[in-house]
Amino acid sequence: MANVTIGTKPVGSIVKLTVGGTLRNFIIVHQGKPSSMYDESCNGTWLLMKDVYETRQWHSSNVNDYANSTIHSYLNSTFLNLFDANIKSAIKQVKLPYRAGFGYGTTVTSGANGLSTKIFLLSGTEVGYVHSYFAVEGAKLSYFRGCAEAGADNKRIAKLNGSAVVWWLRSPYCRSDFSTTHAWSVNTNGNWSSGSCSNSWGIHPALILPSTLLVSEDGAVIANTAPSTPGSIRIPESIQGGTSVAVSWSASTDEQGNLEGYVVERSVNGGTSWTQIYQGSALSTANTVPFGTQSVM
């Protein structure tokens, strides 16, 4: 079976990315932009690591300000650097809806003013919860449609070393008597929970990839690389204006096998300007040069 683009894979499919030298499973949880609350940068293939990666504090200062949190900083520095270089460069820089600042307000900053990030935690809204103490940070992702909005659901259960654990969401707990200290999480049975931001709970990271990346038969995501430059191009040693000139070149190689073809340009003024004379998959073409032409490149 040939490689396929990740954007054609159905929601719920498993793909593989190397993190810290280990191939790990990621669930496709959404395709495209979830709603108008999201910046266009979020239009891609949303991935959620299938298992919890490790446990960490949401904020070492016990403050429910996600944009300035310990976990946001860690995910976009130390954790991001665990990906292979070609995948790291392909991960999209996106702008997500989020509750800015700290406290218990529920005003959401979204669209082009959203939080700039590459690796992130999902919000309570994105995993399907509805609650008066949630800021509505975005929209429910396709994978979580049909999940219980106010209770446990198996789709939200995540494991670390084979056992279900509590894992963090990016959503602050917006309840006045908890002031600035609590954020939302997902319990071991898939129900909502919350706790002090200084707690060390599971990191269940998400990211968005361009939908044009390829997936191999074994599920590994492949960052498309450029084909090689043709090793040679051949033209006649002499030309006659008004006649057809044959041009040929050696084939490129392409690691992913998705080379679309070649573009050939011609200059008759020493390289000052160029005109495209061919685009296609062949290894040769012919072109008539104008009368009076002294040289051709």
Summed up:
This protein is mostly beta strands and 297 residues long. It has helices at residues 70-79, 85-90; strands spanning 4-5, 14-19, 22-31, 45-49, 54-57, 94-96, 115-117, 159-160, 163-164, 167-172, 182-186, 192-196, 200-203, 206-209, 214-215, 221-222, 233-234, 244-249, 262-266, 275-280, 284-288.
Walkthrough of the structure:
With 297 residues, this protein is mainly β. The chain has 2 helices and 21 strands. The strands form 8 sheets. It has a 4-stranded antiparallel β-sheet with strand order 2-3-4-14, with no helix packed on it. The radius of gyration is 26 Å and the shape is elongated. The model has no long low-confidence stretch (mean pLDDT 94).
Radius of gyration: 26 Å
Indicate the percent of residues in helices.
Answer: under 10%
Major sheet, described briefly?
4 strands, antiparallel
Order of helices and strands: EEEEEHHEEEEEEEEEEEEEEEE
Regions with pLDDT < 50 over 5+ consecutive residues? Answer: none
